Amino acid sequence: MLLILFVCYCQVSLVMAVSIPNPRVCVIGAGISGLSAARYLKAAGVNFTVLEATRYIGGTWRYDPRVGFDDHGLPVFTSMYKDLKTNLPKPTMELPGFPLPEDAPSFPGWKVYYEYLQSYTEHFDLKKYIKFLHHVVSVKREENKWKVKHKEVVTREEFEEEYDFVIVGVGHLSKPKMPYIKGEKKFQGTIIHSHSYRIHDPYKCRRVLIIGAGPSGMDIAIALTDVSRKVIHSRHTFIKFRTPFPKNYVKKPDVKELNETGAIFVDGTYEDIDDIIYCTGYEYDFPFIDESSNLTITKSSVTPLHKNVVNIYQPTMVMLGLVVRACFVVALDAQARYTTGLITGNFSLPSQEEMMAEWQKKYLSLRAQGRPLSHMHSLGGNEDQYYAELTEESGIERVPPVMFKIRASDTRAIVDNLLTYRHYSYKVLDSEHFTRTWEGNENEHERNKSFSNC
After folding, report:
1. Structural domain count, the chain
2. Interatomic CA distance for residues 196 and 390, integer angstroms
3. Which of 97, 159, 258, 443 is within CB 3.0–4.6 Å of 183 for a Cys-Cys bond?
4. Do 134 and 105 fall into the same domain?
5. Is residue 429 part of a domain?
6. First and final C-alpha spacing in the chain
7. pLDDT tens-place string over residues 64-80
8. Letter string b/e over residues 189-228, b meaning 16 or more CB atoms within 10 A of that residue's CB
9. How many angstroms separate the CA atoms of 291 and 294, rounded?
10. DSSP 8-class letter at 406
11. Which domain holds residue 256?
12. Is the pTM of this model over 0.90?
């Protein structure tokens, strides 16, 4: 269907993106994406407003012990758990020109990082541009304007305003992707998604099934080996972890079926289970974006986007933070700078035909490799090339190649040992080079191998 739409579209449009004098800009969300955009828009003298549904900045980086819904009936958007530490080292988590505190750990926890974002907000004086407790309910394209409806969540008063540009910066880590497993309703234990995981106390001396091997799945599984009687981890990742897993950690293939007390796996084995945590990722979810945007939004992708940022059909709509397998904070900042350049007219986009042709080429390459459309958002080994392309097109300052190199080094350390990779400290020497220093205790390589607390 995408290919057909592309062919039909290219026959009718060669329109170039046109800059708008004195544009009015709406930024949706005050997480890292929204704050980064606000910083650069302010510096460029652009008229903008940030709409934030909660009373806080920081998005998912703020820990909230609540799950489900907040006091105003809105979903609790954050997926932060109490013991989370970043899985990328400090240099890749810093926003340019605003370093993390000198004494911050190499892999800071959520509290250190959230306080860093608060300091960032204060340093650049961004709060006065944010309307807190304003939940966006509709973004519609009418008469060459974006009509944005938002609701004050306490008073329920509704507003509608017109903007020339819309920057969507709400992220994609709020709506859990829930699998369907036969027999799930029979299971008599607890079932949650990692979105609702907060602390490990409820799992003390329990037999816990973790399903999924993304960053959260691996992190939570390792953490629970400290307190649980047994951690059964169902995963089929292509990554061959070399971690010396604790004795109470058991690797299993996919779950075939659940019954009242446990799980049957596709290899025919069975395990008794007390609790299940689905670490199965998140869906792309933007219910406020009207069909007039012409975007195709599914659970796993948003298309078509030029450079993973610009809505090709409506270039005055920008989506920040949809990339995966990247130095996320670094990528967000680069996208925010690129977006500001677009809004201020510092550069012109290619024609819509050219943008679609580029997007289609990437799409067909994925198809040829047998990869799903969701991989359109994955940078992976092409991350540094992506930053080079943003710079070539827009003229923004180049993200130093050293950032990608640090991520690659960190990824290898994760594969080598999930128990100890955070004991490395990274220091940037110049745009191409860095040092990595081991700061842990060698005995930690044997962490928890003789677990017997239960």
Report:
1. 2
2. 36
3. 258
4. yes
5. no
6. 55
7. 999 999 999 999 999 99
8. bebebbbbbbebeebeebbbbbbbbebbbbbbbbbbbbbb
9. 6
10. H
11. 178-278
12. yes
- The number of residues in the chain equals 454
How does the average pLDDT of the chain come out, rounded?
93
Residue 275: its H or E element: strand 275-278
Would you place residue 19 in the very low, low, confident or very high pLDDT band (cuts 50, 70, 90)?
confident
Q: Are residues 250 and 389 in the same domain?
A: no
Give residue-wise pLDDT tens across range 79-109: 999 999 999 999 999 999 999 999 999 999 9
Amino acid at 45: G
Residue 194, in any domain of the structure: yes
Q: Which token pair is 268?
A: 């025919």
Claim to verify: residue 165 and residue 211 sit in the same structural domain: no
State whether 186 and 245 are in the same domain.
yes
Write the CA distances from 420 to 1, 80, 381, 413, 444, integer angstroms: 46, 21, 24, 8, 7
Among 236, 252, 278, identify where a domain stops: 278
Instruction: Tokens for 308, please give them.
Output: 């993973």
Q: Which of 278, 308, 341 is the endpoint of a domain?
A: 278
Angle ∠(28,29,31) on CA atoms, nearest 5: 150
Alpha-carbon distance of 414 to 409, in angstroms, equals 9
Cα separation, 25 vs 50, whole angstroms? 9
Phi, psi (degrees; rounded to nearest 5) at 172: -140, 35
DSSP one-letter string for 197-224: ---SGGGTT-EEEEE--SHHHHHHHHHH
Residues 152 and 291 in one domain: yes
Non-local (6+) Cβ contacts of 231 within 8 A are 208, 210, 221, 224, 225, 248, 249, 250
Q: Are residues 223 and 323 in the same domain?
A: no
| CATH code of the domain containing 79 | 3.50.50.60
φ, ψ for residue 277, nearest 5 deg? -120, 115
Residue 425, in any domain of the structure: no
| Beta-bridge partners for 303 | 296
| Structure tokens given for 95 | 């926003």
Same domain, 132 and 148: yes
Mark whether 86 and 151 lie in a shared domain: yes
Place of tokens 């078509």: 304
Asked if residues 323 and 329 have their Cβ atoms less than 8 Å apart, the reply is no
Which segments within 133-229 are labelled E, that is strand? 134-142, 145-152, 158-163, 165-168, 175-176, 190-193, 207-211
Specify if 269 maps to a domain: yes
Count CA atoms closer than 13 A to 7's CA, side-chain side.
Answer: 3
